[in-house]
Write a structure and sequence with these properties.
Order of helices and strands: HEEEEH
Helix content: 25-40%
Shape: extended
Strand content: 25-35%
Largest sheet: 2 strands, antiparallel
Oligomer: single chain
Strand order of the largest sheet: 1-2
């Protein structure tokens, strides 16, 4: 069961639906503090930088259902682990540099002879 759930169903004109979606889009594009007015109610929430978006279109007979669902976590984001430096890559690079110098020295010695 959800901690909080608000569900509101209402009939809107296509223009009103567009206005509602545009207001939501504008709020999401801002600083993450979303305040959305729905009828007499105002919903305020913080939306993090990353959200999951589920899109569903269902046609059943002469009725079309189009759902856009945004989901996000309210938990603090986990820090990303730093990639471990590989000792093998460093050793390989040093060995490769030594080999290149040795080859160059040998070639230079042959040319000078």
């Amino acid at each position: 069961m959800a901690d909080i759930e608000v569900e509101r169903k209402e009939a809107l004109s296509r223009h009103e639906a567009a206005d509602r979606l545009a207001a939501l889009a504008k709020a999401l594009a801002g600083d993450g503090h979303v305040e959305l007015k729905v009828g007499a109610d105002t919903f305020k929430m913080h939306v993090p930088d990353q959200v999951r978006c589920d899109l569903e279109v269902e046609v059943e007979g002469d009725e079309v259902e189009f759902e856009i669902e945004l989901k996000w976590s309210t938990a603090a984001p986990k820090p990303k682990p730093k990639p471990a430096k590989s000792a093998t890559k460093t050793t390989t690079a040093k060995t490769s540099a030594r080999t290149t110098r040795a080859r160059t020295t040998k070639r230079a010695g042959r040319v000078r002879s």
